[in-house]
Design goal:
249 residues, mainly alpha, two-stranded antiparallel ribbon, 15 helices, 2 strands, elongated
Length: 249
């Protein structure tokens, strides 16, 4: 089916009515959104909305982030990064096809005030942080998209390494100088893959934070976006082996 985006007035009405709609969020639904086209409009992009029903529910302490990331990115692979920043698209999905998964992945607190803040964070996507880190659907798409930019690696392994530690992932996603530079981001992910397949030393909080500090230090006097892939590889290898004293490369 074609992607659907909420009209601005529909999005504003949902955002301002979270408290009144708590019963629907907790156990009801928003069927009226799907049935009435006056609330939304179609985008030319085709999506596999049925595939979203196969998302895995949390179980045994696992959130199945890798598997769900693949499902969402594959189902919505025709989205452009521009489209994938549109809150109207993600909020439509979080109130329809992704509603049941959202409840399972982000259980709604019993306290009403806490519930409103919680829903606002995970069902909506007002800013970049929510889009890339918090919203039930968009966060999975963006993690898949970031990994898909890394060439010549097994994508499943790339996702497993990228999603292995939440603090590592957050450090990469929240640093525009890293996440927006395809060459630098790709080089870091390749080294995370090596570490993931080895002793996983680079995932230790101290080691990875030092790596990011060293990269920032280099970025203070060199334009990282202008470095060739070979120069980035050389820089990272030097930092990891000489500064961090790791022997995983």
């Amino acid at each position: 089916m074609k992607a659907r985006l909420l009209k601005a007035a529909s999005l504003d009405a949902l955002r301002s009515s979270i408290l009144e709609n708590l019963a629907a969020y907790r156990g009801g639904g928003f069927d009226y959104l799907e049935g009435d086209p006056s609330f939304w409009f179609e985008h030319e992009v085709e999506i596999d909305v049925d595939a979203l029903s196969t998302l895995k529910a949390p179980s045994g302490g696992s959130f199945y982030e890798v598997e769900n990331c693949e499902i969402v990115y594959t189902a919505l692979q025709q989205l452009s990064p521009y489209d994938a920043r549109d809150e109207r698209f993600w909020v439509y999905l979080s109130h329809t096809a992704l509603l049941d998964h959202a409840r399972r992945r982000w259980p709604i607190p019993a306290d009403d005030a806490e519930a409103v803040a919680h829903i606002s964070k995970h069902w909506f996507a007002r800013d970049k942080r929510q889009v890339e880190r918090d919203q039930v659907g968009s966060r999975l798409w963006w993690m898949g998209h970031l990994c898909a930019r890394v060439e010549n690696v097994d994508q499943d392994l790339a996702r497993r390494a990228f999603l292995f530690r939440s603090d590592v992932r957050a450090n990469l996603v929240e640093r525009p100088t890293v996440s927006q530079s395809v060459n630098l981001f790709s080089a870091i992910v390749r080294r995370l893959i090596l570490s993931f397949s080895g002793k996983q030393e680079l995932f230790e909080r101290r080691a990875f934070r030092q790596l990011m500090m060293e990269i920032n230090s280099v970025g203070g006097y060199r334009l990282l976006d202008c470095l060739a892939p070979a120069e980035i590889d050389s820089m990272l290898d030097m930092i990891i082996t000489e500064r961090l004293k790791l022997a995983e490369l």
